[in-house]
Specification:
Layout: H1 4-55, E1 58-59, E2 64-65, H2 67-80, E3 83-88, E4 93-96, H3 97-100, H4 102-119, E5 125-135, E6 138-149, H5 155-210, H6 229-278, H7 286-314, E7 321-325, H8 326-344, E8 347-351, E9 356-360, H9 361-377, E10 383-388, E11 396-401, H10 435-445, E12 449-455, E13 458-464
Parallel strand pairs: 8-10
Antiparallel strand pairs: 1-2, 3-4, 3-6, 5-6, 7-9, 10-11, 11-13, 12-13
Bound molecules: adenosine-5'-diphosphate.
């Protein structure tokens, strides 16, 4: 498989070279056309100059031409590629370049033909142009000018054109070289961040699949700041992914250590009490056995809760749906907590509107028991208000307390298994951090949502069904 860097380099190099070749070709063609136009004009002007110069050699008194000067002019123009034949008005021969120096004429014409055909690929033939010579508006003779046509380049023009072509060739080569360098640089700028992201993703994948136990390993981050939107997005996503995996790993460890802690505490109590009874230090009386029984119940509850949660999360919960009034369910549940609230000196206010619903009564009751028991557990003064908005498309319930609130950094995690804001896992407040996970799983099984808001003045739980 071809690498991104090579593919980009090839694409750029091809694109730039092609564009430059097309541009060079067009410029070359236009230059050539303009140049050919100028050459044709130059040939026509030179022919007119010849005619004028020869015309000036006419002597009206003797009614003849100055042959010596005409010969000098003719000889000069042979080297320029113009072969002259001059005759008087009666057609009598005056001067002819070929008769004067045939070998030189042939040599010059052949050299021009060879140059035009081989160097410039302009096929042509020798062409004759006739011009009348007049004096005081009276015809006094004729000139025939033979040249290579439709046009030809003189030696100086050939040299000029060759230099221009050479220049184009060198410029072309320099451009191709430059385009390759630019392509390499460009493709490197684009591919480098992608390669870095790919490398980071590969490392993360390798660590994840190898089940690495080193937490440091997930600290893979891309630190570069990219100005390109997509590259910045890619780098950000990789960092978020790495952070999430790191967090997931951390929470998994936390979960394992929390379960171990939750089991160790009652088991240590049990072990201590039973060993003391076996050693005869304590009596196996009702009080000690009740203490053991309570610890066993605590472990059983934890295992049951974890089991319930696993079932709710992993299996399709079979909801036993019936028609009932949600307001009535909330009222019955609140009744159960009246005594506990009274004991703590807090009030429970109900703000309910009759709201028929088709749902699993027992499971929803479990949700409100968990929310209310938390509200009472974490509230020492003030009160709890349970509201149910009038029936609309969704049933919206809110449970507001004036308790200690939840720190903002904990808020996103409170619905996770065994997550507790109390990091010391103080047993005074009781729970193992499973109640909200169970509530969330039940609400989600009903296609609803549960969320929490919190500040210093208390917590609000919203349930939408
Ligand atoms: P727990 O059994 O420990 O209460 P939950 O899953 O019910 O476990 O709650 C998770 C954590 O969320 C609790 O440990 C507590 O820190 C916090 N929490 C839940 N409800 C409230 C509330 N009403 N006020 C303050 N903190 C709360």
């Amino acid at each position: 498989m071809i690498s991104l860097k090579h593919r980009l380099t090839l694409t750029y190099a091809l694109f730039i070279s092609l564009s430059l070749s097309v541009l060079t070709f067009i410029v070359n063609q236009i230059t050539r056309q303009i140049f050919t136009g100028l050459i044709k004009q130059n040939i026509a002007e030179k022919s007119n100059d010849i005619v004028r110069a020869i015309g000036e050699q006419y002597n009206p008194n003797s009614r003849s031409f100055d042959i010596v000067t005409i010969e000098a002019i003719g000889m000069y123009f042979i080297h320029e590629g113009y072969i002259l034949t001059v005759s008087d008005e009666r057609g009598n021969f005056v001067w002819d370049a070929r008769s004067h120096n045939m070998p030189e004429c042939t040599e010059v014409l052949e050299a021009i033909a060879a140059r035009m055909e081989s160097k410039f690929r302009v096929g042509g033939s020798f062409q004759n142009q006739h011009y009348p010579i007049s004096y005081a508006k009276q015809p006094v003779g004729n000139i025939n000018i033979e040249t290579y046509g439709p046009f030809f380049y003189s030696e100086t023009e050939t040299l000029f054109l060759s230099s221009v072509n050479r220049l184009f060739l060198i410029a072309g080569l320099v451009f191709v070289l430059l385009s390759v360098i630019i392509s390499i640089l460009l493709s490197r700028t684009i591919s480098r961040p992608i390669l870095k992201a790919e490398e980071a993703a590969r490392q993360i994948a390798a660590l994840h699949s190898s089940g690495s136990t080193n937490r440091q390993n997930f600290r893979i981050r891309l630190h570069e700041q990219y100005k390109t939107k997509e590259l910045a997005g890619l780098s950000h996503s990789i960092n978020v992914l790495s952070h999430e995996l790191e967090e997931g790993e951390r929470r998994q460890r936390q979960l394992t250590s929390d379960i171990a802690h939750e089991l160790r505490t009652p088991l240590t109590c049990l072990q201590g009490t039973i060993e003391a009874i076996l050693d005869g230090v304590w009596e196996p009386d009702r009080e000690n056995i009740t203490s053991c029984h309570e610890e066993i119940l605590r472990v059983t509850r934890l295992v049951q809760d974890l089991n319930t949660l696993t079932n709710l999360e992993w299996e399709n919960i079979n909801l036993n749906k019936t028609d009932f009034d949600l307001a009535e369910l909330l009222q019955v549940t609140a009744e159960q907590f009246k005594a506990a609230a009274y004991k703590k000196g807090i009030t429970i206010t109900l703000n309910l509107t009759t709201s028929p619903i088709n749902a699993d009564y027992d499971r929803l009751k479990q949700v409100f028991i968990n929310l209310l028991s938390n509200a009472i557990k974490y509230t020492d003064q003030g009160g709890i208000t349970i509201s149910l908005e009038p029936p609309a498309k969704n049933r919206r319930i809110s449970i507001v307390d004036t308790g200690i609130g939840i720190p903002p950094e904990d808020l996103p995690f409170i619905f996770e298994r065994l997550y507790r804001t109390d990091k010391s896992r103080n047993r005074n407040t009781g729970g193992a951090g499973i109640g909200l996970s169970i509530a969330a799983a039940i609400v989600s099984a009903h296609g609803g949502t549960i969320s929490a808001e919190s500040g210093n003045g208390g917590t609000i739980f919203h349930v939408t069904l």
